[in-house]
Design a protein that fits this description.
Rossmann fold; six-stranded parallel sheet; two-stranded parallel sheet; binds flavin mononucleotide
């Protein structure tokens, strides 16, 4: 089994590790130009972004070829995933293949402009991640065929969100500010999955192709990277995942 995953704060890396098999980071596969994957089972594990599929995952799927008997996906979300599974199905069918299994799992919502990470950590036990994950793992091990369905409301919400999304990656990247406690350690550059940050004996400089994953600010050791409308100064990384693992997964 091969698991292709994308993770900014470790939730999906945790899921990927628990599901098992050979783990391949999507940013690393893209960096290495690996586009062909062959195994009995192949899984895509990634977060919902803006009620849909993160642009980095969509781009990866569009340029990849999956040869397997059982293609599955697990999408983690924080509050409401909209019709992300439906969008994923569309992207994959345009790439000429189809899924045997798609499921979603609710975890900590790491969208800093929308949520206080301290409160998210507090309510995390209520989401019963490990119990839901155990069911998903059992389904995958049993090669269960099942695709979660999205209702009309979810589809409408995703449609509206995709229309509203203005593609202003440049503006988003330039909205970060760096406080004086920045130690110029370069962690932000190392965890950025698209190589959008440069640190050269100075504070980080953000280029204009940010995918808004927030790995830079969430994983900053001195917590020096701020967003204009952040709910609090608290930051999050999945407690089972180390900073080194995020760097390993995302470093460009
Ligand atoms: C740019 C961005 C957009 C997001 N959009 C949604 C969303 O539409 N719905 C939702 O429930 N969670 C959303 N989230 C939360 C993530 O899907 C969720 O926290 C996920 O588990 C993070 O995975 P990771 O730790 O592997 O990066 C968003 C997070 C980010 C950074």
């Amino acid at each position: 089994m091969t698991i292709l995953y994308f993770s900014a704060t470790g939730n999906n890396l945790y899921l990927a590790k628990e599901i098992g098999g050979e783990l391949v980071s999507i940013p690393q596969a893209m960096k290495n130009g690996t586009t062909s994957f062959s195994d009995d089972k192949i899984g895509l594990v990634f977060p919902v972004y803006h009620l849909s599929v993160p642009s980095i995952v969509a781009a990866f799927i569009k340029t990849s070829h999956f040869q397997c008997d059982y293609l599955f996906a697990v999408l983690s979300y924080g509050m409401f995933g909209g019709a992300a599974p439906n969008e994923l199905k569309k992207i994959v069918s345009e790439a000429g293949t189809s899924f045997s299994y798609i499921n979603t799992i609710q975890m900590v919502d790491n969208w800093v402009p929308g949520f206080d990470m301290a409160k998210q950590k507090e309510i995390d036990p209520k989401k019963k991640v490990d119990a839901h994950l155990a069911n998903i793992v059992a389904d995958i091990n049993a090669s269960k065929k099942w695709i979660c369905r999205n209702g009309l409301f979810a589809k409408l919400a995703t449609k509206i969100m995709l229309k509203r999304k203005d593609g202003s990656e440049a503006a988003f990247a330039q909205s970060f500010t760096v406080e004086d406690n920045c130690t110029k350690c370069g962690t932000c550059a190392k965890v950025c999955p698209v190589g959008n940050i440069v640190v050269e004996n100075a504070k980080p400089v953000f280029d204009n192709h940010c995918i808004r994953c927030l790995a830079c600010t969430q994983n900053c050791p001195p917590n020096a990277i701020r967003l204009p409308r952040e709910k609090s100064r608290h930051r999050y990384r999945n407690p089972h995942i180390s900073l080194q693992e995020i760097i390993q997964a995302n470093k460009q």
